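If your schedule permits, I should be very grateful for your opinion on a structural question. Kindly check, if you would, that the fold set down in the tokens agrees with what the sequence suggests. Thank you for your consideration; the sequence and its tokens are set out here:
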Amino acid sequence: MEQSSVNRRDAIRRLATAGLGAASAPLWMDTLAALAREQAVHLHQTPAGTLPAAAWTPAVFDARQNDTVATLSELIIPATDTPGARAALVNRFIDSVLEAAAPSERDAFLKGLAWMDARSRTLYGQDVLAATVGQQTDLLTRLSSESGRSTEEPAGVQFFDALKSMTITGYYGTSIGLRQELGDDGRLVLAEFKGCEHPEHQ
């Protein structure tokens, strides 16, 4: 196996176990991250560790929002020698997390998603789905780089962080992420999920 593949697995694995990790993160981001971890436990407990393969309709997203989330999540965890986020149906996982979330938390994420399209139109003259892969990657790079995070609007940076957190959690809740990517034999399954520790959510 190439060293770059090992480095990628190690880096993503550390992100998956660390969560958002930012003390200054807004409450809605922390709550969605907690819900995502809880949903991932349920995926671990299914025999194949996968989302249902039957015909599926989003509970929260419209068709364009669903396609946009699938596209962005694939940029975060792209297919290499193993399948990426799209093949792992991470978009379905994120939709299920948002369905379980409170309306205010769901709306915060969807506003961030709308911001992505607006920012893409400002920068490239077209929304995320119509942009080229290079333009899509540039937009995410702006939101993840130290220089970009200091100049881009908080709504975009926060959305990217929330999307990245749920993408990583969802991906490693499936058999693709656990078994194909990490080579896990089941020992990485969480025995317990502590949930959100904010007093207002107890």
